[in-house]
Design goal:
6-stranded mixed beta sheet, elongated
Length: about 650
């Protein structure tokens, strides 16, 4: 199984100007190398068979005929390879000479696609030799004796015979820079992968401009974009070409070569991800319906049936981020963390301005979630021009509270300048136990949840007393797993962490610890980061945490990984497990599989809590709010997903 992945390659072999035989030899060699790596598509530069910089030699029949002959030889020599080849050559019809790209597969010239927009300024003089194809009529042309009727035009998509989602089209060089690139129409007509055979001269700053074009076009068209640039061997009479190769997917570069690097660039494109994204983004389908694009000719070949199967142990030519909610790009990270904290704080500040309250109430446990919520609340008060003394932090020790979390809660309140009140709820909970006939020695759900509900009651009543707002502390991961007490810590007047998963909570608190000038605050935050995650509802022995959440549920790092790929893309459990095995997650396959089952079982069973979760601003691409991102019946069955998981090994 390929899990929706399609391996592609971009190649810029060294060329010899006007020596079609030498160029064809190198193209054939590159095809064999790419085929050996399991690539199903390889893209070469513009006019790669002749080289791009032939000048007036393009008008010589000797060169034109050699290009046809050597393209035929490329087809014959690669006939046994299960790889679709896109290679550039000049093609002369009875009336005009065209800058073309040929699709080659299993020894056949499947189609010829002419360049639409020909640059004719600066170092480019393409209109001196080539003609654009001016009409959109579907044509066939005589290529050779072996290929007397080859489809010719810009209306061609190559697709897999059994899976039309695997659909490939191409444009050439300057086409990408046009206000309306041909690739936009290709994508709206079903192409998920766009190949660009290019010859872009290298000038200062142009590489970054190229990246921007490729990234933005792949994002706008929700496609994968494979770009291969001309390089070594091209004439340097007036320009230099840098062999720049880029493979992007929906706005993200997933593989790129260095400049002047002749090695083949590989990437595994996730076609399933692109298709699911197109289905989700209604703007794309609406645009496709309104575009009035001409009918495309679709040529079916057996691309996937001969493709190399992806296995659990084989390398994947793309990076699977172990923490998809946490950006791993070092550049601009401080700005990113500040942006997230500001979004959280602005959400709360707006609610406070609207309600006119000047006080906030927050349950401070000394754990990660309430710590982040407090830091966000302090920021919100600053945005409202209010003093932090209006923040009322309530610490409510009970049966499971440890000395460490208690000390940290007190120190955190002191260092942030908020008002701290301690209310020991143990006696109130015991009175409640007597009222409902609960035996305190029975440590069941009622024993645990009574404490969480007592804390929420205290917070709500204090908020009423001081005309304040209760700030919720629960995070996205807890909402996904239902790891919260219904009408207990599950409830608040505004939840600032509701769309922030546990892995991101940890990273934001670490950022605050690293960026503050207050050494005492930094020390407290670092100790909170080092404290095991726990609801602290069961009695502790000798001050040690007796109830570690991740020992019960499995690692939050895994749960957040599963949540991201399930919600963001709708992937199956099998594919998510495959991705988890490819990511640098420090857990065994068995641990991942066991945690995956817990995730799905809890996710389905706990929807009723999410159906009435409090308001809170969306921070990232995923939210479980029933008012915006996630609408799911509380009584939906998980049987299909659990059955699939149980079949995995």
């Amino acid at each position: 199984m390929n899990y929706g992945f399609f391996r592609t390659a971009a190649a810029s072999p060294e060329t010899v100007v006007a020596d079609c035989t030498a160029n064809a030899n190198r193209i054939i060699d590159a095809c064999k190398k790419a085929g050996a790596q399991g690539a199903s598509l390889i893209v070469f530069p513009e006019l790669a068979v002749t080289s791009y910089s032939c000048g007036d030699l393009f008008l010589q029949t000797t060169l034109q005929e050699a290009a046809i002959r050597e393209t035929e030889r490329i087809a014959k020599k690669t006939a046994s390879l299960p790889i679709l080849i896109a290679v550039g050559l000049p093609f002369a019809s009875a009336r005009s000479l065209y800058n073309c790209a040929a699709f080659i597969f299993e020894g056949k010239i499947l189609a010829l696609v002419p360049k639409t927009y020909l640059p004719n300024s600066g170092e480019y003089s393409e209109r001196r030799w080539f003609s654009p194809k001016k009409n959109a009529d579907a044509e066939t042309v005589y290529f050779s004796k072996a290929h007397p009727a080859v489809p010719f035009g810009c209306d061609i998509i190559i697709s897999d015979a059994d899976d039309e989602r695997c659909a490939i089209a191409l444009e050439i060089g300057e086409d990408l820079r046009a206000p309306l690139p041909p690739s936009s129409y290709h994508a709206l007509s079903g192409a998920a992968i766009i190949a660009n055979l290019s010859a872009s001269s290298e000038t200062v700053g142009k590489a970054e401009y190229r990246r921007l074009l490729v990234k933005s076009q792949s994002a706008r068209t929700l496609c994968a974009y494979v770009y291969a640039d001309a390089g070594h061997g091209e004439s340097t009479q007036d320009a230099v070409f840098a062999s720049h190769k880029i493979i992007a997917e929906n706005g993200t570069i997933i593989a790129e070569s260095k400049s002047f690097d002749d090695t083949i660039c590989f990437a595994d494109i996730d076609i399933e991800r692109l298709v699911l994204e197109r289905r989700r983004e209604t703007t794309f389908s609406n645009c496709a319906s309104n575009a009035n694009t001409r009918p495309y000719r679709k040529i079916s070949v057996d691309l996937l049936s001969r493709a190399k199967t992806f296995s659990k142990n084989a390398p994947l030519f793309r990076t699977i981020d172990a923490s998809p909610f946490v950006p791993n790009d070092e550049s601009g990270q401080s700005e990113r963390w500040n942006d997230i904290l500001t979004v959280q704080a602005e959400g709360l500040a707006k609610r406070m301005r609207h309600t006119g309250v000047k006080n906030a109430v927050i349950g401070l446990s000394g754990g990660l979630d309430s710590t982040l919520a407090l830091l966000v609340t302090v920021k919100a008060f600053a945005l409202c021009g209010l003093n932090a003394s209006g923040i009322h932090a309530i610490t409510m020790p009970c049966f499971g509270t440890t000395d460490r979390t208690y000390r940290n809660a007190c120190a955190l309140a002191k260092e942030t300048g908020v008002a701290l009140t301690e209310i020991n709820i143990a006696e109130a909970v015991r009175v409640h136990f007597r009222d409902i006939g609960q035996d305190e020695s029975i440590r069941d759900a009622a024993y645990e949840n009574a404490q969480a509900r007592e804390r929420t009651q205290v917070l709500m009543d204090i908020a009423n007393k001081i005309n304040g707002i209760v700030v919720g502390t629960g995070d996205l991961s807890e909402l996904a797993l239902g790891w919260c007490t219904y009408n207990g810590d599950h409830m608040s007047m505004y939840g600032v962490n509701g769309s922030v998963p546990k892995t991101l909570v940890r990273r934001l608190v670490r950022f605050c610890a690293d960026s503050t000038d207050n050494k005492n605050l930094s020390a407290v935050l670092n100790d909170i980061l080092a404290t095991p995650v726990s609801p602290e509802l069961l009695p502790s022995e000798r001050g040690k945490v007796s109830q570690k959440t991740e020992d019960i549920l499995g690692p939050y790092e895994l749960h957040d990984f599963f949540l991201y790929y399930m919600l963001r893309f709708g992937f199956s459990p099998e594919k998510i497990l495959f991705l988890a095995d490819k990511a640098s997650l420090p857990y065994t396959h068995e641990e991942k599989l066991r945690t995956l089952r817990i995730f799905y079982k809890r996710f389905f069973s706990q929807q009723f809590k999410r159906s009435c979760m409090p308001d809170g601003a969306k921070v990232g691409s995923i939210s479980l709010s029933p008012r915006s991102d996630w609408r799911m019946p509380s009584d939906a069955s998980a049987a299909l997903w659990l059955t699939e998981i149980d079949s995995l090994k």
